[in-house]
Amino acid sequence: MKKLLALAVVAGGVLFVIKRNKDAKAEADLWREATAPTERPLAAVSANGNTPAKTAEAGTNN
Hints:
Elements: H1 2-34, H2 55-58
């Protein structure tokens, strides 16, 4: 009975590690896709995600 319980614990641990590695790979793939450079930046958003300042306002210091 103890051997069966130990085998179940080991099998559960192995399955847990496999699932965790699979989830980590999926998250890494999503991150890689989300941070991949695009062919051209979006019109209203700069490359770092901030809204760019308008050229007329950029020269004034109030």
